[in-house]
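Sorry, explain these tokens?

***
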Amino acid sequence: MSIQINDNCPHFVLKDQNGSDFLISDQIGQKNLVIFFYPKDDTPGCTKEACSFRDVHDDFLNKDCVVIGISSDSTESHQEFAEKHKLPYALLSDTKKEVRKLFGVPSNLFGLIPGRVTYIIDKKGIVRGIYNSLTDPLGHIQQALKKLEEL
């Protein structure tokens, strides 16, 4: 079963690109959250999406929001990806795809490609928006900003 609008954000702990534990519970109640699941570091669509989140990161900060990227890549891969593209937000390593399953992020193309889904979560930990599109990486940023305006 996948997470829907008005559901509570699931609690989880993953390693970030620096190898530190990232507890989502430390963020809930403090900030709005944008959690974007993406297929793979350093692929064309994922790089475009990650860099677009970077380019408007101040807009998210101004909306009292923390941006979090999650894929099944290793912490080492995330660290290289973040350094190469100067990404100012956490990239979390979900190597066992447990958090992806917890959210119910679908796979595409016969299960071969992990899905690209963005969740917009308010300060109370309630999911207020979901954007699912593998082929429109830039739409994730636009939809997230638009939903944050409504909160």
Notes: Residues 53 and 142 are 10 Å apart (CA to CA). The chain has one domain: 13-150.
